[in-house]
Amino acid sequence: MRNKLSREEKLFIRDFGMNLKALREERNLSQTKLEAISGLSKNQVWRIENGEVNTTISNLVLLSSALEIEIPELFNFKS
Questions:
Q1: Neighbouring C-alpha atoms within 13 Å toward the C-beta of 29
Q2: What is the DSSP string of 31-76?
Q3: 36-45 contacts at long range (C-beta below 8 A, 24 or more positions apart)
Q4: What number of CA atoms fall less than 13 Å from residue 4's CA on the CB side?
Q5: Region 44-71 average pLDDT
Q6: What is the C-alpha to C-alpha distance for residues 24 and 3, in angstroms, rounded to an integer?
Q7: pLDDT band for position 3 (50/70/90)?
Q8: Mean pLDDT for the chain?
Q9: Which of 14, 34, 45, 76 is most buried (most C-beta within 10 Å)?
Q10: What is the architecture, at CATH level 2, of domain 7-74?
């Protein structure tokens, strides 16, 4: 199992986080409110939005449900 992410992977994770933030802000939700609605742990949304974590598939399901969007919309951005 590899531990290091490539530059492209890091940029993709950053861009994903920026898109998540934009989607959240379009819905006038704070990070704390999105965490509460989605059931994510404290500060998890901040870490995802700032590209600090490579989030899980289960978190994608929680986030898309909380934002009331389909999962592919989370990836609707240019990296």
A1: 21
A2: HHHHHHHHTPPTTHHHHHHTT-S---HHHHHHHHHHHTS-HHHHT-
A3: 37/66, 38/62, 38/63, 38/65, 38/66, 45/20
A4: 2
A5: 98
A6: 30
A7: confident
A8: 96
A9: 45
A10: Orthogonal Bundle (1.10)
Instruction: Please tell me the total number of residues recorded for the chain in this structure.
Output: 79
User: How many CB atoms are closer than 10 A to CB 13?
Assistant: 19
Closest C-alpha among 48, 62, 40, 61 to residue 20: 48
What does the pLDDT average to over 17-23? 98
Show the tokens assigned to 33. Answer: 């409110």
| Res 33 pLDDT > 80 | yes
Q: Model confidence at 37, in pLDDT bands (50, 70, 90)?
A: very high
pTM score: 0.92
The answer to whether 45 and 66 are in contact (CB under 8 A) is no
